[in-house]
Amino acid sequence: MSDVNPILSGSAQSIAAYQDAIKQSTQAVVEWLKQPEMYQGKTVEQLRERISLNFTSQGLGNQAAIERAVEYFLKDSLLVHHAQCVAHLHCPSLVISQAAEVLINATNQSMDSWDQSPSATIIEIKLIEWLREQVGYAAGDAGVFTSGGTQSNLMGLMLARDAFFARQGHSIQQDGLTGDLSKIKVFCSESAHFSVQKNMALMGLGYRSVTQVKADAFSRMDLADLKDKLAQAKANGEQVMAIVATAGTTDAGAIDPLADIAALAAEHQIWMHVDAAWGGALLLSEKYRDFLNGLELADSVTLDFHKQFFQTISCGAFLLKDARHYELMRYQAAYLNSDFDEEAGVPNLVSKSLQTTRRFDALKLWMGLEALGKKQYAEIIDNGVTLARDVAEFVKTQPHLELVMEPQLASVLFRFRPQSDDIAFVALLNQRIGDVLLASGSANVGVTEADGVTCLKLTLLNPTVCLEDVKVLLASVKATAEQLLKA
After folding, report:
1. Which of 303, 333, 359 is the last residue of a domain?
2. What CA–CA distance (Å, rounded) separates 360 from 107?
3. Mean pLDDT of 20-36
4. Is the pLDDT of residue 1 over 50?
5. Is the domain of 325 the same as that of 435?
6. Last residue in a domain, options 76, 99, 122
């Protein structure tokens, strides 16, 4: 054992070691934050060559281990707060979220049982109650914090599946899948998140169980096609287990017509889940909250806070409209959520989660809401949506830049359009623009497809970015394109 006890505890030695390690780490972060470059520009091959493990028998000690982490991890990390880092739904984080991480990590509470996380459990429950209120659900605490959208979507689909079979008198939990599974379908838009297919495969129903409904010109679920596909499914003897609507598609930020989809789901007695991992941020909006009208009609909802709520990764939530559906997944273990605890009203959140050991990520949202207040939070959320509209108008004025789709949330889809009718050439050019900008370390621009058109994507989550910053980026896009055309 080294002279300084490596375990965080209340001893004088441990506290001194903790303070030294945190001080060294935070000083390194401060210097990193000042870097002018978005990325140091190393390739996959260069990083493979550069990074090596150094696990010695005696250990290097805290100081040397931190120095190596700074050199080989921190210095080669992407500056997600940089004005030119706009490729993905990858947000810069609130300062208060960083402070919350210190408390979360030091206390190391585990959210599976109350006796491992007493105050944390109560805070999470109260936040779930508040989030339900924002959605428009009835008072209650049916919901749980998750690792993010994929896990929340899995919970929604799993409970939809189990409720579907329960209505037929069959318990999936007790007896497993049964019957002709090829007849069971889930509907979602062709613009929905890939986790729908991923989760259906995970649940044993496979990709073939997912029926994709056409999207309109704005990537929203097409209601006419949804009606046609529901009728077709009935004619084929198929049963629709769930309809997954999206509030904020990954590329276009499209929000499906939630109220209309809910009406169809109710008519056909189908579970409706809404993936609002991105668009759910508009729950706090002062300008665009009406975009989410109909969300309150869903049977379950996915929310993410490590997108436009600006929390550190990971931080998400799953909300369940009717608490009785939680019985479909409840499992009791004497050492975690015993009958005795339940009769005494002890809240053990393992009953509501797919995870057992789980971080107290809810603290970040709680501290963020208390630090900023609803008005300031609304302003930084609305900023991205408004900025996207301003950027789109600017793009329309620029020769050789073409707006591919009008923005809906905080993303702008556009492309560099040379004087060429060669679709493959134009597509490759835009792909290479994105690659060259990242390789240079100057910018990170998304490359995606919208209705078969390869385009560039600006995801404008950063509330410190303004139109002038985006103009600089667009100038880099044009300059890069011109260099590539000359070459």
Report:
1. 359
2. 9
3. 96
4. no
5. no
6. 76
Among candidate residues 364, 357, 347, 350, the one with its CA nearest the CA of residue 304: 364
The pLDDT assigned to 50 comes to 95
Residue 339 has pLDDT above 90, yes or no: no
Q: How confident is the model at residue 102 (pLDDT cuts 50, 70, 90)?
A: very high
Q: Give the phi and the psi of residue 15 in degrees, each rounded to 5.
A: -60, -40
Residues 220 and 347 in one domain: yes
Number of H helices, E strands in the chain: 14, 11
What radius of gyration do the chain's Cα atoms show? 24
Type and span of the H or E element at 429? helix 423-440
Do residues 133 and 36 share a domain?
no
Strand extents, DSSP E, 108-173? 143-146
Predicted confidence (pLDDT) at residue 41 exceeds the cutoff of 60: yes
- Dist. CA 403–CA 396, nearest whole Å: 6
**Rounded to an integer, what is the distance from CA 256 to the centroid of its chain?**
18
More confident residue, 357 or 341: 357
Contacts of range 117-125, beta carbons closer than 8 Å, 24 or more positions apart: 117/360, 120/360, 120/362, 120/363, 121/347, 121/348, 121/349, 122/347, 123/360, 123/362, 123/363, 123/366, 124/349, 124/360, 124/362, 125/347, 125/349
Q: What is the pTM of this model?
A: 0.95
Domain that holds residue 64: 12-76
